[in-house]
Amino acid sequence: MAELMCPLAGTARTRNLAIRVETLMALSRVFSAGGEKLEQTLAGLIEAYRKWLKEKAGDQKEDRELLDQLLKVQAEDDKKRWVYEFNRLFIGPQSPPAPPYESVYRHGERQVMQESTLDVRRWYRSQGLSLAGQSNEPDDFIATELEFAAYLLTQALKREQRNQPKKAEAYIENYNAFCQEHLAAWLPGFVKALSASAREPFYLALGEIIQRVVVPVR
């Protein structure tokens, strides 16, 4: 991390933002890399979630139980089950029980590329962003939305490090608005579908972690 240029309160804030960014990106990579890369992305998620727990105040019993669950899964020998379950839950070939796309949960038709997808695209464009290359995924793919949330907090973090609190706050407000308008509007439904359908403990823990981590900045 770059040298911090803020007073003590600012230092704590930059640390909190940095950990949020790392955890959001770790969750994003779980979905973007796919089932074949789960061994690597799980390791990144465990490292990020450990830091998130150290930063979190209050009762951490359930959070630590989730971390223990991730570590238990990481120690398993038969990791092929993870790949199969990832594909069954999120990809197919049959209709996946927990599609990782916002529009599926917002419009009651289990279809992608709905109005919410276009609004997400408008959010990306408002920050001068677009999907890289010829992506096969819609704009409201969970990995992309989580990466965008991490991007907004990364920009806030940079402004905090430059001692530009007003500019940092503007990015945090954008992050909170994006959470409210999009992530918070569909992730509970996604996690519910995931919890009802998952046959492997890793995916149950993943849903719980998403619920805890993807929250507004207070």
UniProtKB/TrEMBL annotation:
The keyword DNA-binding does not apply. This is Putative component of anaerobic dehydrogenase. Pfam families: Nitrate_red_del. InterPro entries: DMSO/NO3_reduct_chaperone, TorD-like_sf, TorD/DmsD_chaperones. Keywords: Chaperone.
